[in-house]
Known about the structure:
The chain is α/β, with parallel strands linked by helices.
Amino acid sequence: xxxIISAEEAVNLIQSNQTVAILGSGGCVCEPSLVLTKLGERxxxxxxxxxxxxxxxxxxxxxxxxxxxxxxxxxxxxRDIAGHWGMAPKMAQLxxxxxxxxxxxxxxxLSQMYQAVAGNKPGVITKIxxxxxxxxxxxxxxxxxxxxxxxxxxxxxxxEEWLFYPSMKFDVGLVRGTAADxxxxxxxxxxxxxxxxxxxxxxxxxSGGIVIAQVKYLSEQKAHPKDVVIPGIYVDxxxxxxxxxxxxxxxxxxxxxxxxxxxxxxxxxxxxxPRKIVARRAxxxxxxxxxxxxxxxxxxxxxxxVAREExxxxxxxxxxxQGIIGGMPMPGIxxxxxxxxxxxVDQTAQFNFYDGGGLDVCFLGMAQTDKKGNVNxxxxxxxxxxxxxxxxxxxxxxxxxxxxxxxxxxxxESVKDGKLVIEQEGQICKFVEEVDQITFSGEYAKSIDxxxxxxxxxxxxxxxxxxxxxxxxxxxxxxxxxILAHMNFEPExxxxxxxxxxxxxxx
Length: 507
């Protein structure tokens, strides 16, 4: 096929000052890693291309050298418009050092932008981001001082406030699949998610740009029409990487691709400790009967482990913003994929569902919480992660449960005789007077009467009428010494303050 070129030839097509849209998700899922690596190598050897604008809805990389970290060279990238940098610490460092212009927008909005560009629409109009750091009246999604341009606006329609994210053009689209057939159609047999590759390819093509697809295999036969994820008419060039891995952790796991189902008998139970306590308490907020649930990365993914241990995993519909429905979400660096998924849909469609109120409840992480109920999970001190899908998820869900330890850094706790014992207090206070960045807005939640809980291993809080109220404390915990002394604001204390269910603390 005339479309087949080497990775070196592909990156030579990328010119200085162009905007490059990149497919992928954390843990190198659906990531065109070879093309990105060769682009970084070309810049090191030739000093070209320069001043690229990167655009990617998801966090991309392996926390080491792949993903956008393969492009983390001063001069190669001018601007990074990203959903997340948690998997790309080197690119995040460039942002912190003011060597690139760093913008962070909600993952769902960035994904929906591809459809807007492909359809020649003016942009994305949504309420997602109102009153958070995305709102131009707050920070406008700017993550450093170098980011000066306004890329989001507040508008009024029918007497209501909305955020308007204007369309942009893409010169290059980098996508990935498993195989390309004889007509250049891209199929996803071994991929662990679909993401938004088709919309990305359409957007780049309809912008007058080029689309480069990386695959593992070439097929001489035509693919079945229903198996085609990215039609060949959108694809200009194909790069073959025989060493392409499904994720950074494994070459190929058929259970992640949905090609087989495996029993979970081999999965060990969680050890008793803060993570399990939080997961058990948070799980009590699951609705009775079937529920559509989203789990965030980190502490919240323990809810799935608890559901498996206690035998009600099958009654829940866990979803992940990458487009996964059902199964058991995977933790850690490959968060975003699931074993035994029931369905894999386009990521943009998943966010449409979230934005419209399809989630019964979501469980998200929290780095900081303040007296207004605001939560920061995107930027604390020198740690720049980004919001990912959290803003779409939290602002659209019927109920929000934040999960995290009460303090951080150096915290050591154990359970003895059914009581929580603090062996060493954490050095970082997480309940602060004012969060460093508003990823979740307590004000917005109040305006839509959204139930919000903040679950830790030693205390549970609720957002009531815009105020944080302490409702439960763990057995063995002293209210003044172990809770109030480690908060930078004084919460309201419920008249019905109770002890957390003691069964949570049983091994």
